[in-house]
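This follows on from our talk about sequence and fold. I would like you to pick a protein and set down its sequence and fold. Go ahead and set the record down below:
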Amino acid sequence: MAVLSHPDRAELRIADVLEAFAHPIRLRIVHRLAHGAERSCGELLPEVSKSTASHHWRVLRESGVLHQRREGRRLIMHLRRDDLEARFPGLLDVVLAAAGGDPEVVEGEGAKAAGALRS
């Protein structure tokens, strides 16, 4: 299996972190991990195809937003809250507060589709 690479805290770049936050699915992942519990890939995005989810995991991992580790055949991840706070104080809290009001982030694609049907 391939080795999972993660940037060190000092290597985190604001442009990479902001780019990682720039997609609703990645914001949904961050929102779901925000409460501190580690979770597996399948638990976080059951509504998304494996190839799409893998892309988003890679973007979040390589930007330094989350940390992944292998546990048998599963990938377990958690938010790198301490590293993000040390490098960019307050950024994660602001992003989470803004994302918390977006149904597409909080509830997923189903909320977007339901909203379109009501319109």
Observations:
- The radius of gyration is 14 Å.
- The beta strands are 39-40, 66-71, 74-79.
- The helical segments are 14-20, 24-33, 41-44, 50-63, 81-87, 91-99, 103-106, 109-118.
- The longest strand covers residues 66-71.
